[in-house]
Amino acid sequence: MSGKNKREAVLELTGITKTYQVKQGMFSKPQPLKALGGVSLRLYKKDVLGLVGESGCGKSTLAKILLGLENPTTGEVLVDGRQIGPADRQLLARRIQPIFQDPYSSLNPRKSIEEIVSLPLVVHKIGDSVSRQKAVTKMLDLVGLPERSRRGYPGQLSGGQRQRVAIARALVINPEIVICDEPTSALDVSIQSQILNLLADLREELGLTYLFISHNLAVVEHLATRVAVMYLGRIVEEAPAGELFAGPRHPYTKALLESVLTPDPSLSVPDIHLGAQYPNPISPPTGCHFHPRCAAARDVCSTTPPPHLQSATSQVDCHLFRKGADGRSLVPA
Amino acid sequence: MSETILNVEGLTVDIPLGSGTLHAVRGIDFALKRGETLCIVGESGSGKSLTSLAVMGLLGKRIQVGAAKLEFEGRDLRSLTPRQMQALRGDRMAMIFQEPMTSLNPAYTIGDQLCEALQLHRRVSKAEAMAQAADLLGKVGITAAESRLQQYPHQLSGGLRQRVMIAMALMCEPDLIIADEPTTALDVTIQAQILRLLADLKREMNLALILVTHDLGVVARIADKVAVMYAGEIVESGTAKAIFDAPSHPYTRGLLDCIPVPGKTKPGEPLGSIPGIVPSLVGDVAGCAFRSRCALANDACSETIPKRTASGEHMYRCVHETLISEVA
C-alpha cells in the first residue's frame, strides 16, 4: 500500500482472522468456526465507514476486536500506524469507544447518570472529582440532556434519552473513533432520526471517526462516507458510499440494496433471488462463499476463491470482475 | 369478494394501574374485507399491539376491553364465552408473533406444534395432520418438509422459524391472520422474502391480513389500507396511496420526514424529527394527544378533535382543515 494512504488512516486492520472452537453436540469434538476470514480495512480520519451484512457475518466480532474485547487469531490492528497488541487494551480504549444497540441493557440500572457518564474518566484515572463533574455537565449539554438528569437513573429515561447517555459516556474521554453497533435499531422511528442527527452533528463538531454497523441500508446511505459489505467473515466489497449505492458491483451488495423497502406505495415487495439460506460458517461453501445464493454464479465460482480486486477508490472480491487496462478501474470479466 | 370479515367500532383497552387507569386504546374504528391487507402503524406505546391482542381475545382478565361493535364474520365477539372464543382462535383467526424463537416451544418438534391446532379444531388423525403440515411447509417455501417436521425449533434459522410460524397460522385455513411485527427480528434479505410470502398467501387463500408494524417501508409495499396510531388513537387512515402521497395529519407527516429515503433525502443533511415524547395516557386524556409535539398546535387542539374526511376512505383527526392535499 502506498505511504500516503497509511498516513491518513487512523485505524488499520490487516488480514484479521478469528477462529472459535465450537462443539455441536455434547460428545462431538470441537470444530473450528471461522468468524473472520482475513479482514483488511482502513478507517480514515473523519470518515463514517458503514459496515453492513446479515446476522452472523462477523460484524460484531470485528467490533469486539477493535474494542480489544477479543484478540484476533491472526492479523494486525494498527492505530496511527502503530501495532496494537493484547497488552494495549487501555490505550485502545482511550481512543476507541463503543455505542451499543440496546440502551436498555448497556446502562447499569443501579448507577446514576452522572456515575455512568464519568466512569470512563475514573477507569482511566483522568482528572479529579471536580473536573469529572464539569466534564459530565459538558457532555450532558452536548448530547442534549437536561442538567438535572445527572442525578437520575436509567430507569427514569426513555429509550432515546438512554442512547444519549450512552453517547455521552462514549465521548467523555475524547476518543477519536466511535464504534456504533446498530445504535438506532432498538429505537422508534421519530427517536431514531434525533439520534442520527446528533451523531452527525457530533462528528462535525468533534472531528470524530465512526465505524457504523447497521443492517438498515437506508440509514447507512444517509450517514456513511464509505461502505464495507461483509459476507461470512469477509469483506466482499468496499467503496465510497456514493459509488457503492449508485453502482453496486458484488451480487451480494446488489441483493442487499434490492431488499431495502423504500416507502413507495406504487411498488410491491421486491423479489430478491437469494433462495438458499445463509450457509453454515462451520462448513462454508467452496470457492466463493456466496456462490450457492448467487444468481450470476459461474462454474469457476464454486471451485476457486474469488480474486481480490482493487481500483483507485474501491475493492471487490468477485469472479465477475477483472482489472481494467489502466490498472485503476474494475471492468466486468 | 368484498364481504366484510372484521368490523371494529369504538374499541377501547383500559389497563388499571395503581396510579389510575391507563387508556391504552381510546376508541378506534376499522373494518377489513376478505383479501385486504390492513397495516396498523405506530411507535411503541401507541396501542397497536394491544389492538390486535384485543381482537384475538388474548388480553388478561384485569385488562378491560370495550367496544361499540366487535364483529368477526357477522358474530359479535363481545358475546362469546371464553370457550367459544377459543374455538375461533387458531381456527378462523390466527396470529403470527414477532419473535419466532420465543413463540415456538423448544421442547416439541415442528411437526407436533404444527399439528396441534388442527387436531384441536378438527377431527383428523395425526397422520392426516402431519401430511397437511408437510404440505404447508412446502407452501411457505421450506424444502425437505418431511424431515423438517422431526426437527426442533433450535435447529432452524430465524427465517425458517418465521416460515414455520406462518405455516402454523395457516393450518386451519383461517379467514383472518394478524401478524404482529412478523419481520422485525429478521435480516433485511429474509424480511423481503417473508413479506412476499405473506402477500402471495393472502392473495392465493383470499385471507384478510392485519399487519402491525413500525416500519413505514413495509407498510408502503404491502398495505391496501393503513391506520396510523398515536397514543391509542387512529390519527389517520386511508389507502396506502393516500397516506403516503397525501399524508394529512401532522404526526404522519412528521413520521415520513424522519426516515432516510434513498434518492429523496440528501446524505448528510439533517433528517426531520418530532421533538418531545409520547404523553402519559394515565387518567383523563382530552384533546389531541399529539399537540405537545406539534408545531401547528393552538388552543383549539385541547378541545374535541373533529374527524375529517378527505377523499373517499381517507380520514384524519385534526383541527386544521387546510392541511389536506388532494390525492393526485
TrEMBL record, chain A:
Bilayer disposition of the protein: Peripheral membrane protein
GO molecular function, one term: ATP hydrolysis activity
PROSITE patterns, per the entry: ABC_TRANSPORTER_1, ABC_TRANSPORTER_2
Domain ABC transporter: 11-257
Family matches, as InterPro entries: AAA+_ATPase, ABC_transp_ATP-bind, ABC_transporter-like_ATP-bd, ABC_transporter-like_CS, Oligopep_ABC_C, P-loop_NTPase
Segments traversing the membrane: none
Keyword tags: ATP-binding, Nucleotide-binding, Transport
One of the GO biological process terms: peptide transport
Primary site of residence: membrane
GO cellular component: plasma membrane
Compartment annotation: Cell inner membrane
Database matches in Gene3D superfamilies: P-loop containing nucleotide triphosphate hydrolases
Record-stated family: Belongs to the ABC transporter superfamily.
Protein name from the UniProt record: Oligopeptide/dipeptide ABC transporter, ATP-binding protein, C-terminal
Upper lineage: Bacteria, Pseudomonadati, Pseudomonadota, Alphaproteobacteria, Hyphomicrobiales
From TrEMBL, chain B:
Record keywords, A-Z: ATP-binding, Cell membrane, Membrane, Nucleotide-binding, Transport
Domain ABC transporter as annotated: residue spans: 6-256
Molecular function in Gene Ontology: ATP binding; ATP hydrolysis activity
PROSITE patterns associated with the record: ABC_TRANSPORTER_2 (PS50893)
SUPFAM superfamilies with a match to the protein in the record: P-loop containing nucleoside triphosphate hydrolases
Cell membrane keyword on record: yes
Tagged with keyword Isomerase: no
Protein name as it appears in the record: Peptide ABC transporter, ATP-binding protein
Organism: Roseibium aggregatum (strain ATCC 25650 / DSM 13394 / JCM 20685 / NBRC 16684 / NCIMB 2208 / IAM 12614 / B1)
